[in-house]
């Protein structure tokens, strides 16, 4: 990355060339450290590890693999909807839009939208918001492939990036949040997050959200218990990460992956199950963790929705519904809303 050349409020601006720039917050923000978050989430009676910690380099690679296992239908289904949606999107775009993506996303999905936007606009700006600096690698390929594209990356949390966008300029934004990542929030946090997106948007901006739908329990449970065991590796990898980064002594052989669908709460619940009574030291969190045999450490919720719930939720926040696209099997949805 090049040298910082300009400051914008509490962000530093890094100009790489005329088509690529990044903003990164100064390190002065007070955020809880990994060690502190693990100390409080594993120090409770009902033990948990926040799912955002899945995504170190190995975890992100494993997630990429999950996306192409046979049982995990969401990614390929969402791609199939995006393929048919992109031409219909023009009905809802009046004028030029910047593409703002929460998460730097799978390039296949981003590219489907960029294909359409760069073909129909003279120039297109892509604004990925992502805490990981992986942005740098994918940007180069995108700039090579789309000559009328420029990229402004925000290396920050989604909330931080949205706050940044709010006062950035007057251009119209098409904000996308794909992959049913929204389903990993708790309902309360999810609602707050939608309010945050809504408050960021100017009248005329659009928001496209991809959400997984309620379906047969067997299909859902297979998607999170794939036969190749990739999801299990992904789940267990968070313990390796804690071992490496927080100086802990989890023995991965003493844990198993457990994922089950809770019909009442409409969510896959993912846990790590302790296979024996054991104690684990997490040095940097200053914690001695005591686990009973069969005790569960919660690692993720993945909520599933009914169409009416999606529409009610978006409506409650204040969005105006434009359109929902589905695949033939009605497994997955993409909903476009606006702020008027
Ligand atoms: C990132 N997120 C939407 C995935 C999901 O389906 O909830 C994470 C995942 N966990 C296990 N498999 C995939």
From TrEMBL:
<dbReference type="InterPro" id="IPR019257">
    <property type="entry name" value="MeTrfase_dom"/>
</dbReference>
<dbReference type="InterPro" id="IPR051128">
    <property type="entry name" value="EgtD_Methyltrsf_superfamily"/>
</dbReference>
<keyword id="KW-0489">Methyltransferase</keyword>
<dbReference type="InterPro" id="IPR017804">
    <property type="entry name" value="MeTrfase_EgtD-like"/>
</dbReference>
<feature type="domain" description="Histidine-specific methyltransferase SAM-dependent">
    <location>
        <begin position="34"/>
        <end position="338"/>
    </location>
</feature>
<dbReference type="Pfam" id="PF10017">
    <property type="entry name" value="Methyltransf_33"/>
</dbReference>
<keyword id="KW-0808">Transferase</keyword>
<dbReference type="InterPro" id="IPR029063">
    <property type="entry name" value="SAM-dependent_MTases_sf"/>
</dbReference>
<dbReference type="GO" id="GO:0008168">
    <property type="term" value="F:methyltransferase activity"/>
</dbReference>
<dbReference type="InterPro" id="IPR035094">
    <property type="entry name" value="EgtD"/>
</dbReference>
<dbReference type="GO" id="GO:0032259">
    <property type="term" value="P:methylation"/>
</dbReference>
<protein>
    <recommendedName>
        <fullName>Histidine-specific methyltransferase SAM-dependent domain-containing protein</fullName>
    </recommendedName>
</protein>
